[in-house]
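Q: Can someone sanity-check these two? First one:
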Amino acid sequence: MLSLLHIENIAVIESADIQFDRGFNALTGETGAGKSIVVDAIGAVIGNRTSRDLIRTGARSALVSALFLELPALSWFSENGMGPDEDGTLLLQREIQADGKNVCRLNGRPLTVSQLRTLGQQLLNIHGQHDGQQLLDSACHLSYLDRFGGDQAELLAFQEAYAALSQVRHEISALQMDEAEKSRRMDSLSYQISELERAGLRVGEEDKLAARRKVLRNAGKLIEAVEDAHRALSGDDDSAGAASLVMEAEQSLFSARTVSDEVSALAEKLTELRCAADDAAELVRDLRDSLEFEPGELDELESRLDVIYRLKKKYGATEADMLAYLESCKKELDQIQYSSDILARLEKKQAVTLKEAQMLGSALSTVRRESADALEARIQKELEQLDMPKVRFHVEFAPNAAEYGMDATGMDEVQFLMSANVGEALKPIQKIASGGELARIMLALKNVLAENDDVSTLVFDEVDTGVSGRAAQKVAEKMADVARHKQVLCVTHLPQIAAMADTHFSVEKGERDGRTYTAVERLDKTRRREELARLTGGAHITSAMLESAGELLEAAETYKRGYNGEK
C-alpha cells in the first residue's frame, strides 16, 4: 500500500506530506484547488510520462517521494535485483529538473525512468476521468478482454507463429517481380559484382597504401635524413662516427679500470652506451638499405587508391563494408536466378506456418470466447450493484478482416455492446451510452480487471463524472467494497463518495505574498461534516446542511458496519 506521499514544487504545491491509510481514502476540494495535481505527482513517482512544465514557477526542480509498505513479492524485484528494505519499506523518489533530466531512486539506489515505470505498473493503477473515453474506442475492447481472460500464453504463442508467417510472406514478396524488373535488377547486380571482383579488394589495403604513399612523397627528405644519421653513427672516409668514438672512450677508461672504482663504473656505462650506439647504427644501416623505390611506383599507388576511393563512394566506407556488399549482391543475384525454386520452397513453408498460425489463432479465439462469457456475467453483476440492473452487456465477436483472417492481435475483432433499457436491442457502447453510464461501466470493468492482478493500490481521479443521486450512492458503495481488499485513493466531487471514505483529505488553494499555494489537510469528523456540507450546498453552509452531512456519514458507517458483520 501507498503509505506516505511527499511532494515538493509540483505546480501550485510547494510542499505537502500526505499520510494515506488502508482502505478507502478520498480527496475533495474546490475545482482548480489542485486535487488532480496530487494524482499527477503519484503518476510521476511511478514513472508515468511527465514534463518539466510541472515544476513550480521559480523552482529549479520538483521532487516526489512515495513510501510503500506491505508489498507482495513482485516479479520486478527478482528481475532487477532490487526490492524493499529488511523492514518491508520501499521508498521511490523522482526528481524532475528544469533541463528535462530525471533522477529516479529506489531506497536510495538509482534506476531508470523505464525501470520505474515497469515497477509502478505493478504497484498501483491510476484510473483517470478520461478513461471512460477508451470504451468509445472499440480497438481497446480486445485488450480489455485479454487482460480479463489472462490468455497471455495463448496470445504469445499465436504472435510468434504470426511473426514467422509475416517473415515468410515478406521473403516471398521480395522475390516476386515482373520479368522486366527482374532483368534490370540482374544486370545491375552483375555489373556491381563484376566491378567489385575486378578490384580485388583486401581488408586494410587502403591504410597500407596510404602509409606507403606518404613515404614515397617524402622519399628525398627521408633518404637524406637516413644518410646523415648513418654518417653520424658509423662515420665515413673523412671522419669517425659516434659509435667508433664511444668505443675509443670505452677502451681508454677500460685500461685504467683497476685504478679507481669510479673509473670502472664509468667504463661500464660507456660499454652500455657503445652497445646501444652499435645497435642504432645497425638499424639505421638496415633502414638505408631498404629504401629502394621503383620508378612509377607512386603513380601506380595513386591510381590504386583512386580506384578504392571511387568504389567507396558507391559501395561502402571501408574494404570490409564493400566486401560485405559484394556478398549480399551475390546472394540476391542467386535468389533471383533461382527464384522459382526458392519461391516453391517458401510457398511450402508459408503453408506450414499459416496452418500453425490458424491453429493457434483458433485456440486463442476459443479461450477468448470462454473469457467473454465470464466477463459478461461479471460486468452484469457489477452493473447491478451500480444501480444499472436493466442494462445488458455483451461481447460481440467478428472475424478479423485482415489478410488470412488474422493480424498480430489474433483472428478476432471484438466490441462491447449494451442495451440501456428493457426491450432495446444491443448496440455498440459508443453509440448509446451516456456519460454517467460510461463512467459506471468503466468502473465495473476496472474493478473486474483489478481482481486478476497483484496491484494493491487503485487510484481513481474523478471517475464519477456524470454520476449523481442514487447512482452516486451505488458508486460510493462499490468503492467501499473494493477498498475491503485493496487500498483505494479517490479524487471526487460527490458527497456520497467522500462520506464513504475511511480517511478524508481536503485540498485547498490560497495566496501568500503574491503566490498561489495548495495545502492538503487530513480531516477529523467535525471538518468532514463541514466539507461534506460544502460539497452538498456550496460556500454558504447552514445547520441543516451540517445535519445532513452528519446523516450521510452515519449512513456510510452503517453500510460499512454491515459488510463487516457489525451491528
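And here is the second, same format, sequence then C-alpha cells:
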Amino acid sequence: MYDTTLFSVAGVVKDLEHPSSFLSKEFIKISNNEWNSDNWLMFNSNYNLFVKLKDVKSKKTFVNQISKKIFDMTDKDFRESNFKARAEVTPLTEVHFDKRLQNSTNINLIYGFIGIGLFLLLLATINYINLTTAQVPTRAKEIGIRKTLGEQPFDVTKAFFLETLTITCIALVISWPITKLFEKTFSKLLPSNLDSFSDWLPLVLFIICLIAIISILSSLYPAYLINRVQISEVIKMKGIGKLSLGSISIRKVLIVVQFVIAQVFVIATFIMGIQMKHTMNSDLGFNYNALINIHLPFKKDQNADVDPFVLKEALKKHSQIAGVSLGHLPLSQGHWGNFVETTADTGLVKINVPFKFVDEDYFNLYEIKLLAGRRFSLSDTSTGIILNKIAIQDLGFKSPEEAIGKPVKAYGKDRTITGVTDNFNTKTFHTEKTGVAILTSKYRGQLQDITIKLQNDPKTWKASLAILEKEWKTIYPNAPLEFKFYDQNIREYYETDYRFSKIINLSTSITILLSCLGLIGLVTISTVQRTKEIGIRKVLGSSIAGIVGLLSKDYIKLVLISILVASPIAWWASKKWLDNFVYKIEISWWMFIIPALATILIAFLTMSFQSLKAAKANPVDSLRDE
C-alpha cells in the first residue's frame, strides 16, 4: 500500500490523446530493496515489466537471453516437476489483442465483426442487383429509344453506374443518423471508448473506396444485361413481359447466395444461444447464487488498516445475513501461483497450482463439495492445506482418502493435507480445470475480498443490503461501498462472448429482413410479369392454392438449396467458435433442422402475401389489356 508513505509530486504527465491499453495514472519509483527479491518460483498476474529495445530486430536475441537467465535460475526447482519457464514479450502495439494478457481483446472477434459487416453489404448488394435485373424488361423500351437516338453501350453503362452511385450516396447520408441511433440503442454491444476515435482521414478514405466498389459491383451486371437489349426486339415486342434476357440463372444463384448467408447466421445464432445457456446453467462446482462480493479497501485514507474480520463478525450478528467469508473468489481472473511438493515412491513430485487464501467459513459459504477429510479450523493457519482432486492426482495419490494426512510443502512451509475437494472451475469455460491449493489465512494482504450470502428469498435482500451499508459505514466510513452479485461477476467474465452472440443475433435479424425484402421485391415483379398467365390459369380453373404454389415453389426450391449449402458452412463456423470453450455442447442434427424449418416458414409467409394478392385478382382485369 504505497499510500502509507508520503511522496512528493515530481512531475505531471500529459494525458494520452487517443485510446490506449496503457492505463497507468500514477508512477512511483520502485525502491532498490524491492529489486533484490530472489524468488523466481512465484507466478502472479499483478506484475508487468516494460523493456525498451534499441533495435526491434534484436527482440529474438533479447528473449533468448532472458529465457536462458530464467532457466538458469529455476531449472533446479522446475526440473523436478517437469516444468520449464521462459520469457515472452509483446510489443505495446499488440498488447490490446494479446490473449495472454488480462483485459485484452480477442482480435478474432474484430475479424468476425468485419466479416458480419461484409456479409450484410453483400446481401444488400445482391438485393439491389436482383431487383434491378428484374426490372430490366420494364425499362427495355426506354433503353431501346435511347439507343435509337444514338447512345452507345458505354453511355448506358455510365448512366447505370451514376444511378447506382447516387442511390449509394443517398443511402450513406441516411445511414449516418441511423448509425448514431444504433450506437445509443446498442451501446452495451460496442466498445466504451468508440467516440474517442479521432483518426478520421483513413475512415473517410475507406468510405469513399467502399462507395466506389459497391457502385461498380452493383451496376456492372444490370448494365451488361441492358446492353444486350436489341432495338429490333424492343420495337417488335407487344409486351415487355416477352423479353427474355437469360438472367434467370444468375438471379437464382444470387438468391441462393443470399439465403446461404442468412441461414448460416440463423444456425450460428441458434447454436451460440444454446452454448451460452449451457455456460451459465452448468454446475461450476460451487454455489454462486445470492452472493455479494466486495473488494476490501486498500488505501490508508479509506481505513485499509482495519481488520476485515471486524466487518465479518459485525455482519454475522444479523439474521438477515446467511453467511460471511473472507478470501479469494473460487472463480476469478486473478492468479496466485506457487508450488506444492511431496515425496512419493518415485521421488520428489512437484506441481505448480493456483493458490487461494480463505478463512474457515469459505467452504460452507460456497458449498464446495468435500470428498475426504475435513474443512479448515483456526488451528490450520500454519499447518493445514486443502487440495482439489486434480491436484492430489497430479501429486501421485490414487484416491482422496489416501491423500488425507500426507505431508506436503507449500509456500515454503511443511503442511498436512487436511481435506480434498471435488474439482471446481477457477476460470471460465474457456480454460480447463486445474489443480488448486487452498490455505487458510488471517492476513489482510491475502484476504482481499469479502463475500456475503443473503437469504434465498429475494424479498429480504433490500433489508440485508441496508444492514450491509450501515455496518460498512461504521467500519469503513471513508471507503465507498461497491459490491456486485457474484453471478453478475461471472456473467461479466463472458461479456465478450455475450456481446458477440448479441451482435450475431442482431445481424441474423438484419440478414433475414434483407433476404425477405429481396424475396418480396422479386415475387412482386414476377407476379406483374406473369399477370396474364395467372389470369389465363384462373379462367381454366386453377385454384388460389395452386397459383400461390406456382408463384412460390421456385423460390422455396432455392431456399432449400441454400439450406443444404449453408448447413456445412454453419457447422464449420460454429465448431470454430465452440473450440474457444473447453466445456462446450455437442453439435447435433436437430440444431440444423429447427433453423431450417424456421427459415422455410419465414420465406413462405413472406411470399404468400403477394402471391395471394395476385391469385385473388380478377382474371378479367388482367386479360382486358391484351
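A (reply): Looked at the second one. Residues 495-529 form the longest helix (35 residues). The chain is about 50% helix and 10% strand.
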